[in-house]
Write a structure and sequence with these properties.
This protein folds into three domains: 8-197, 2-Layer Sandwich (Heat Shock Protein 90), CATH 3.30.565.10; 204-329, Ribosomal Protein S5, domain 2; 363-570, formyl-coa transferase, domain 3 (2-Layer Sandwich). Helix content is 34%, strand content 22%. The chain is built from 18 helices and 23 strands. The termini are far apart. Residues 340-383 have low confidence and may be disordered. The structure holds adenosine-5'-diphosphate (ADP) and magnesium ion. Residues 29, 33-34, 36-37, 58, 60-63, 71, 76-79, 93-100, 142 line the site of adenosine-5'-diphosphate. Adenosine-5'-diphosphate is lined by residues 29, 33-34, 36-37, 58, 60-63, 71, 76-79, 93-100, 142.
C-alpha cells in the first residue's frame, strides 16, 4: 500500500461529509448563519426533504460583494480571529466550514445585499467551484439556494431514507431554532405546505403553540430560574399528564444553541422525580445561559454536543429551576372511578348491613409543629392537616382532610418521605449515620471494585464508609441511619452497580431512591395510630407529597363534593 495525499476534491468531500450529514444539517447551518447575521426573519423553503432544493432567506446584515468569494473558502469566517476567541464563542458558527462544505456537496447560489449597497451580489458554485458571479436586484439580507444536494457524494444518499423523514428532521431543526429565538420570525414551507410559522413576538409560549399546538402550549408551566441555581435558566415544561414515552419532546439549549447533553437532560428528568413514571419523559424547552468560556461547543463538527466545564453546576441549576416550577403545579390525584357503584347494584338491594369497623382509632390532632409544616406545603386544596381514621388491609391509611377523604399508600408515602430526607442530607453534606457495631465484610466483583473510586464520594455522602480489607473484600463501617435495617452488603452492591459505566452528576438520586425503597415500611404491615399520624405529617411537610420517587401516587383523594354527588345529596 502506498500512502498518498488525497486530491483536494476528495479531501473536501470528506470534510464536507462531517459537517453536512443530511439535508437538515444544511438547513441548520444556513439558519445559524442567518441568526449570526442578526436576522429578525428567516424563511426556509424545501423540496423533496431538501434533496431537490433548500432555500434559506434572511433579513440580516448581508455579505459585502468583495467578500463573497471568501465566504465559500474553508476556514473563512468573520466570527473568530484567534484561538482565544475559540475559547469563548458567542456566535452559533465559528468554524468557517459550512458554506465551503455545502458548496462541495451541491449546486449553490447565494444572493446577498448589505444595507446601503446599491444592488445585491450573487455567486453560483458547483462542486465547490465558482461558476458565475455578478450583481442583480435584491432585498437587503441573504438568500442561499442549495440544489441537487449530495449529487457529488452519492454514498451519502444511501443513508437518506425518505423525503418525508428528512422533512421531519428539517422541521425539528426549525422548531428548535424558533424555541431558542422567539424574537425571530421563522417560516418553513415544504412544497406548497407551511410546516411552521412563528410570529417573532418574543413570547416562548407562542412559539410552543406553533410547534405543539395551542392546547399543549396552554398547559405548559413556565420556568423562570432558581435563586439557588448557579446559571440562569428559563423555559417551559409540560405537566406530568402530557408526558411521552420517549425524549423527543425534551429540548435543551445552551446559550441559544440546541444541544444534546446528557447532564442537562437528566437534570430535567430528575426534576420530575416522583411526578413521572419510569420510562415517561416530559415536554420541555429549557434554556440555560452559561458564560461562553465555560462551554466547549467545538466537540463535534455538527456542534450539537457541548462540553460543560462545570457540569455539576449546570445540573443543579436546571434541576432546581424546573423542580421549583413544578412544585407550584402538582395537585393530589383524584381517586377516579373509586366511587363507581358496585356491579350488583342493579339486582335487588343487598340486605347486608354495613358493618362499621369495631374500633376506629381516634388519632389525636397533629401537634402544632406538624400543623405548621402542613401549612407550608403547597398541597393544593387539602387546606389543612389530615385526621387519621384508620388503616385498610394493613396497607392504606384512611384520613379526613378539609375537603374530603384521603387514602395514603403507606409504603409509597414512607418511601417519599425518606427519599426527600436523604436528598436534604445529601445537599447539606450531613448524613445521619449509623456506625456498625461489628464491621461487616462485603465481597466485591471486579466490576464493582472498578466502580468504587467513582462511587466512594456518593457512598460517603450518604454515610456509608468502606475500608479495604484484603483483595476483593471491603469492610462496611457505617450505613445511613434510616437504612440500618436493610442489608448493608446489598446497599453497597446497588450503589456500585449504579455507578458502573461512570455514573453521572445524578447517580446519587438513584441511590437515594434505592435506600428509601428498601428502608420504607412495607405494605401489609399494621401501623399504630401514632405511626400513621407521624407518617402523614411527615408526608404533608414535603415539597411534593403526592408521589413517591417512582412516580406512583402516595395518596388519593375523594372530595366531599364527589361523595355528595354519589349519595345524591347535590
Ligand atoms: P461560520 O458561520 O462558521 O463563520 P460559514 O461557512 O457558515 O462559517 O460562513 C462563512 C462566513 O460567511 C460567515 O463567517 C459570515 O461572515 C458569512 N455569512 C454566511 N452566511 C451569512 C448570512 N446569511 N448573512 C451574513 N453573512 C453570512
Ligand atoms: Mg456558519
Amino acid at each position: 500500500m502506498v500512502i498518498r495525499v488525497l486530491p483536494p476534491a476528495v479531501a473536501a468531500g470528506i470534510a464536507a461529509g462531517e459537517v453536512i450529514e443530511r439535508p437538515a444539517s444544511v438547513v441548520k447551518e444556513l439558519v445559524e448563519n442567518a441568526l449570526d447575521a442578526g436576522a429578525s426573519a428567516v424563511d426556509v423553503e424545501v423540496r423533496q426533504g431538501g434533496l431537490a432544493s433548500i432555500r434559506v432567506s434572511d433579513d440580516g446584515c448581508g455579505i459585502a460583494a468583495d467578500e463573497l468569494g471568501l465566504a465559500f473558502e474553508r476556514h473563512a469566517t468573520s466570527k473568530l480571529r484567534s484561538l482565544d476567541d475559540l475559547a469563548a464563542v458567542t456566535s452559533l458558527g465559528f468554524r468557517g466550514e459550512a458554506l465551503a462544505s455545502i458548496a462541495a456537496a451541491a449546486h449553490v447560489r447565494l444572493l446577498t445585499r448589505v444595507a446601503g449597497a446599491g444592488s445585491a451580489a450573487f455567486v453560483e458554485l458547483e462542486g465547490g467551484v465558482v461558476l458565475t458571479q455578478g450583481t442583480e436586484a435584491g432585498a437587503p439580507g441573504t438568500s442561499v439556494t442549495v440544489e441537487a444536494l449530495f449529487s457529488t457524494i452519492p454514498a451519502r444518499l444511501k443513508f437518506i431514507r425518505s423525503a418525508s423523514a428528512e422533512t421531519a428532521r428539517i422541521r425539528s431543526v426549525l422548531d428548535h431554532m424558533a424555541m431558542a429565538y422567539p424574537h425571530v420570525r421563522f417560516g418553513l414551507r415544504s412544497e406548497t405546505r407551511t410546516l411552521l410559522q412563528t410570529s417573532g413576538n418574543g413570547v416562548l409560549r407562542d412559539v410552543m403553540a406553533a410547534v405543539y399546538g395551542t392546547e399543549v402550549a396552554g398547559s405548559l408551566i413556565e420556568v423562570t430560574g432558581s435563586a439557588r441555581g448557579v446559571y440562569p435558566v428559563h423555559g417551559m415544561v409540560g405537566p406530568a399528564e402530557r408526558s411521552r414515552p420517549n425524549r423527543t419532546g425534551m429540548s435543551l439549549f445552551v446559550n441559544g444553541r440546541w444541544v444534546s447533553n446528557r447532564t442537562l437532560s437528566v437534570a430535567v428528568e430528575q426534576a420530575y422525580t416522583g411526578l413521572l413514571m419510569e420510562g415517561r419523559y416530559p415536554i420541555a424547552a429549557v434554556l440555560v445561559d452559561i458564560p461562553p468560556a465555560e462551554v466547549d461547543a467545538n466537540v463535534h463538527p455538527n456542534k450539537r454536543e457541548v462540553r460543560l466545564v462545570r457540569d455539576g453546576d449546570a445540573f443543579t441549576s436546571v434541576q432546581r429551576a424546573v423542580r421549583e416550577a413544578l412544585l407550584a403545579d402538582s395537585p393530589v390525584a383524584e381517586a377516579r372511578g373509586l366511587l363507581a357503584p358496585p356491579p350488583a347494584i342493579a339486582a335487588p338491594l343487598p340486605t347486608v348491613a354495613f358493618a362499621l369497623p369495631p374500633v376506629i382509632e381516634r388519632a389525636p390532632l397533629p401537634e402544632p409543629a406538624a400543623a405548621t409544616a402542613v401549612a407550608q406545603a403547597p398541597l393544593q386544596g387539602s387546606g389543612g392537616p389530615l385526621r387519621i381514621l384508620g388503616q385498610i388491609s394493613n396497607t392504606y391509611v384512611v384520613a379526613e382532610g378539609a375537603d374530603g377523604m384521603y387514602l395514603i399508600d403507606q409504603h409509597a408515602a414512607h418511601e417519599a418521605v425518606l427519599y426527600y430526607r436523604l436528598l436534604r442530607q445529601w445537599e447539606e453534606g450531613q448524613p445521619e449515620v449509623q456506625p456498625m457495631l461489628e464491621p461487616l465484610p462485603v465481597e466485591l466483583t471486579p466490576e464493582q471494585v472498578e466502580a468504587l473510586p467513582g462511587a466512594q464520594p456518593t457512598l460517603e455522602r450518604y454515610g456509608v464508609t468502606l475500608e479495604p480489607f484484603g483483595d476483593a473484600t471491603w469492610l462496611v463501617r457505617s450505613v445511613p441511619l434510616m437504612a440500618r435495617s436493610i442489608s448493608a452488603a446489598k446497599l453497597v452492591a446497588e450503589v456500585l452497580d449504579a455507578h458502573r459505566g461512570g455514573g453521572g452528576a445524578e447517580t446519587h438520586l438513584a441511590v437515594a431512591a434505592s435506600i428509601a425503597c428498601h428502608s420504607a415500611v412495607r405494605a401489609g404491615q399494621p401501623l399504630g395510630a401514632q405511626e400513621m399520624e407521624a407518617l402523614s405529617s411527615a408526608l404533608l411537610a414535603e415539597d411534593i407529597p403526592q408521589h413517591c420517587p417512582h412516580g406512583r401516587p402516595t395518596m388519593l383523594r375523594v372530595t366531599t363534593s364527589a361523595l355528595e354527588r354519589e349519595f345524591g345529596r347535590s
